[in-house]
Every structure is written in structure tokens, then in C-alpha cells.
Amino acid sequence: MYKILIADDEMIERMVLRKKLIDNFGDSCEITIAENGREVVDKYEQKGADLLILDIEMPGMNGLDAAKAIRKMGSECSIIFLTAFNEFDYARQAISVHALEYLLKPCDEKELVLSVEEAIRVSKNHDSRRLLELCEASARTQASTADAILKYIERNYSEELSVQVMAEKFAYSEVYFCRLFKQHFGESFISFLTNYRIKKAVELLKTTKMSVKDIGKNVGYEDSNYFTKVFKRVMKVLPSEYRQST
């Protein structure tokens, strides 16, 4: 049976999290509860776990320190962090212990379920050595994640891009990719891509005599009516009106 160890110093948070896991995974998982980081380490030593879901801010030993202590034991279990604080230093430390996910409170149930499903999938489909290699590779590439993602968008913005495509390209789960993207760029991937495409469309409207339809296709919109709609939403005018005004 898949073993999950969850820890939060708030009793209500622990109970809500446990209920979400039971509602979605039923009897397929064995769930153990801890109140702080020290108890996490003790219970892990006693019973082990395939997945740790840890609040970061806990009195005494926090979730990050507990994860580091367990990693020193040679453990390669999956780790998901929960925190109410959207701070880059926490995310950086989460990467250092090869965390699978970093979720912000209040935790969206869909995000939690997707993250746990990813942990179970990883456990089933990869041996321990392969998992460690993947985590280490992920940690190395994240140092230049923003630059790599931006360059990929610049080269491929006219193609069919989606969160799924990007997540697969950079070997992340969709949930984790969305979080990292927003952390680096300050907005969602879809919002960023839309603004980037419209910026390119503006350049073409200014510098070429291409039709609005062809410009739309050139920046990634096969449907000219949809392109016009998106352009007006962003620029407050139709493409043809913008061209006439320049």
C-alpha cells in the first residue's frame, strides 16, 4: 500500500488534508499524521513513507529541515511542500531537497490530487536511481529555467503552444510548470503568451502590408476571427483600426 505521511501544526489543516486524500484515494493509501517536523522524522524512521506532504512553517523543526534530515538518511521518497508564504527562498530550498511540488495554501484540491497522482506515478514507473537522476536534472535546469522558457517561446510562439506542451518540453508536471512560470514572469503562461503574440502582431501591422488574417496565422492564431477578438481585448482596438492609426 502507498504510504503518505502528512504534517501540519494546525489540527484543522491536518484533518482537512487527510479528508481530501481519503475522498480522492480511498483505501489505496495508508495515511500517517504528524504535528511538526521532529515527529515527521520520528515517524518516518519507524514506518517509512512513499510520499511526504509537509507544511513548511512549523514550530521546532520545520518542514524543510525535516525533509533535509530524511534525505540525509538516503531516502528518495517524493516530497510535496505546503505553505502560506509565496517566497522564492522557500521554493529554492524545496528544490534543494528534490521536492516534487510546492503548493500554496489554501491548497486547491485539484492541484493536490494532481500532485499526489504524479508522486504515485513516479513511484510506479521509475526505480529509485532514475527518480534521483530526474530530480537532480530538474534542480540543475531550474537555475536557468526562465531564460530557457523565454527562448523557447521566442522561437515557437507561432506554433501551437499550451501548458501541456511546455510542461512536457521542460519535464515538469503541468501544475509545477504553471507555478514556476508565474514565479519567474509574474503572470500565467497563457497570459504571457497572448501578450507576446499580440506584441509580434503589432510589429507586423506596423512594418508590413500582410493581411490581418495572415498576421494572425503568423503569430499563432489559425482562426482570424479569434485573433481579431484577442487583439481587441489586449489593444482595445481592432487590428485594422490599429494599422490605420499608425
UniProtKB/TrEMBL annotation:
<keyword id="KW-0238">DNA-binding</keyword>
<keyword id="KW-0804">Transcription</keyword>
<feature type="domain" description="Response regulatory">
    <location>
        <begin position="3"/>
        <end position="120"/>
    </location>
</feature>
<dbReference type="InterPro" id="IPR020449">
    <property type="entry name" value="Tscrpt_reg_AraC-type_HTH"/>
</dbReference>
<dbReference type="GO" id="GO:0003700">
    <property type="term" value="F:DNA-binding transcription factor activity"/>
</dbReference>
<dbReference type="InterPro" id="IPR009057">
    <property type="entry name" value="Homeodomain-like_sf"/>
</dbReference>
<dbReference type="GO" id="GO:0043565">
    <property type="term" value="F:sequence-specific DNA binding"/>
</dbReference>
<feature type="domain" description="HTH araC/xylS-type">
    <location>
        <begin position="147"/>
        <end position="245"/>
    </location>
</feature>
<dbReference type="InterPro" id="IPR011006">
    <property type="entry name" value="CheY-like_superfamily"/>
</dbReference>
<keyword id="KW-0597">Phosphoprotein</keyword>
<dbReference type="InterPro" id="IPR018060">
    <property type="entry name" value="HTH_AraC"/>
</dbReference>
<dbReference type="Pfam" id="PF00072">
    <property type="entry name" value="Response_reg"/>
</dbReference>
<dbReference type="InterPro" id="IPR001789">
    <property type="entry name" value="Sig_transdc_resp-reg_receiver"/>
</dbReference>
<dbReference type="GO" id="GO:0000160">
    <property type="term" value="P:phosphorelay signal transduction system"/>
</dbReference>
<feature type="modified residue" description="4-aspartylphosphate">
    <location>
        <position position="55"/>
    </location>
</feature>
<comment type="function">
    <text>May play the central regulatory role in sporulation. It may be an element of the effector pathway responsible for the activation of sporulation genes in response to nutritional stress. Spo0A may act in concert with spo0H (a sigma factor) to control the expression of some genes that are critical to the sporulation process.</text>
</comment>
<keyword id="KW-0805">Transcription regulation</keyword>
<protein>
    <recommendedName>
        <fullName>Stage 0 sporulation protein A homolog</fullName>
    </recommendedName>
</protein>
<dbReference type="Pfam" id="PF12833">
    <property type="entry name" value="HTH_18"/>
</dbReference>
